[in-house]
Design goal:
Layout: E1 4-8, H1 20-32, E2 36-41, E3 49-51, E4 56-58, H2 64-71, E5 76-78, E6 89-92, H3 96-100, H4 105-108, H5 116-127, E7 132-135, H6 139-145, E8 150-151, H7 166-173, E9 177-178, E10 187-189, E11 194-197, H8 206-223
Parallel strand pairs: 1-2, 1-6, 2-5, 6-7, 7-11, 8-9
Antiparallel strand pairs: 3-4, 10-11
InterPro entries: Class_I_gatase-like, ElbB
Protein name: GAL3A protein
Length: 224
């Protein structure tokens, strides 16, 4: 039997939910590895809704679970119903929804609060010594919950290629070890079974982002 991997989404769309290309890449690579994805999302309102043409918030209200169901093709469960016992690993794609709907990182940075459901799930997989894969901005969740862990969000020096590099500095302030990696590379924290890759934290061609996520997924499945 293939490994069963929980994939936790945060909505649908880079600016207010899960990054669609990252989420799709995770699902494609899990399929390629012969793993079975079980998709979950919290049944909560989004922090806000962003018009992805204008890049500006709107007055609209949307639900994280309902929006995530678009990516999951309707095959999704409420995060409150996740049972770590029947699962082998956890993966959380990136997108601003991680920093807005799964946590308050977008507004509070290192002083953020992680949603209780999300924190409970991450701690349950960690306690069960089951691997956790995180890409793009989602490693900040582990930075907040697992002090001293090793992670990558790419590079720690801001430039045109790495526009979000200050995230790495903030993670270091939380007591984490940040490891600089190229977009096609991963970092494995062996002790904590955390596998991270930068994805769209890097201004890179989409196939390189896809390849980096592929390596992350492959290692998560191997560790499971």
């Amino acid at each position: 039997m293939g490994k069963k991997v929980a994939v936790v989404l945060a909505g649908c769309g880079v600016y207010d939910g899960s990054e669609i290309h990252e989420s799709s890449a995770v699902l494609v690579h899990l399929s390629r590895e012969g793993a079975q994805a079980e998709v979950y999302a919290p049944d909560v309102d989004q922090m806000h809704v962003v018009d992805h043409v204008k890049g500006q918030p709107t007055q609209e209200k949307r639900n994280v679970l309902v929006e995530s169901a678009r990516i999951a093709r309707g095959n999704i469960k409420d995060l409150a119903k996740l049972d770590v016992k029947g699962l082998d690993a956890l993966i959380i794609p990136g997108g601003f929804g991680v920093a807005k709907n799964l946590s308050t990182w977008a507004t509070q940075g290192k002083n953020c609060i992680i949603s209780k459901e999300v924190e409970d799930v991450l701690k349950a997989f960690h306690a069960a010594k089951k691997p956790i894969g995180l890409c793009c901005i989602s490693p900040v969740l582990a930075a907040k919950i697992f002090p001293g862990c090793e992670l990558t969000v790419g590079h720690d020096t801001e430039c045109e290629k790495w526009p979000y590099a200050k995230t790495a500095e903030t993670m270091k302030e939380l007591g984490c070890k940040h490891v600089n990696k190229h977009v096609t590379e991963i970092h494995v924290d062996v002790k904590n079974k955390l596998v991270t890759t930068s994805a769209f934290m890097c201004n890179a061609p989409i196939h390189e982002i896809y390849d980096g996520i592929g390596k992350m997924v492959k290692e998560v499945v191997r560790l499971a």
